[in-house]
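Aim 2, interim progress: modelling of the coproporphyrinogen III-bound target.
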Amino acid sequence: MSETEPVKPLLEALGGNIRPVPPVWLMRQAGRYLPEYRALRERAGGFLDLCFRPELAAEATLQPVHRFGFDAAILFSDILVIPHALGQRVEFESGEGPRLDPLADAAAVERLRAEIDHSVLAPVYETVRLVKRALPPAVALIGFCGAPWTVATYMVAGRAAEGQVPARRLALREPATYGKLVDRLTAGSVEYLVGQIRAGVDAVQIFDTWAGVLRPREFDEWCIAPVRRICQEVRAQCPEARIIGFPRGAGTALSRYVDHVPVDAVSLDWTIDRAFARGQVPDSVALQGNLDPVALLAGGPALDREIDYILHAFGGLPFIFYLAHGILPETPIGHVERMLRQIRQAVQT
Ligand code: CP3
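Predicted structure of the complex, ligand included:
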């Protein structure tokens, strides 16, 4: 690496190098726990307006990096921009989460666009370019998409549904219809990730938030198979792509995931036993995780202890310190500062 290209600790870890101090970022690090985000959100109007206005989305992306000095920025967007680009109506109601027109049957799936509308996603790529220009050189920019299964759960039910019953029922009753939906999501996600990578993101993460509700066979077919295809097709177009997988709730299926999905790192949720996870994942795959968002919310000695456990459990490995699920909006900013101090001091002394 030349002198003009400073080391990005996050990319070092993704490349298999062990950092004395692990790189740190948080899931949903841009969000409602930050007063500057709430002010920006008010200026933007709707949540999707914020996602699709590059100057504002770039500002949201940069806010947590400027405030805390994280080692990575995550592109400000949402996994549900893909259904939107496939022609499904997507809205975010304040405090209620996403609302989509549910895909009730095969005809509704047929009515979706066959391919994503690139003009819808063009502003996201512009956000990437703006962020890249403003980001400190050692800070990596992470792009992302939702995994087809997780995105399908919102598309079929129209919202977050308990146990993801509507999507599972559709997949079991009408496998051909479900297959068609997943094929469109897979192809759209590949194009979307390639677009982000070409615009300048350093790595991408594939969020499979609802992988944990699946039976083993479903996990293989609905989580592993399409995410594997996404990774392979992205790598065919961008051989240097760095990809992080997040099969939330994979549990004992973690080893099948890392054996079959060609990721550079796997993100762990907070329910997994850390020694077990270490044993399942080959040395060639970095680990990312796995602070419990409630520990970060609680703060105090409970938070300090968790941080110590994590640093101890994943010491000596290529590792990225990460919040295992989204930061809770009521999390005090002081807890995030305390966490960073502890991670960065503990290892240096
Ligand atoms: O810092 C970041 O991580 C910002 C980028 C980002 C957002 N959503 C912004 C967002 C990312 C990476 C996501 C991913 C995402 N979106 C996932 C996968 C990760 C996960 O949470 O499991 C999912 C399932 C979604 C879909 C989604 N978007 C839901 C269910 C909700 C409502 C829940 C909530 O927290 O309000 C959103 C809205 C959303 N996406 C917000 C943000 C900052 C809050 C919207 C607001 O400002 O009111």
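DSSP finds 16 helices and ten strands in the chain. The two ends are 28 Å apart (CA to CA).
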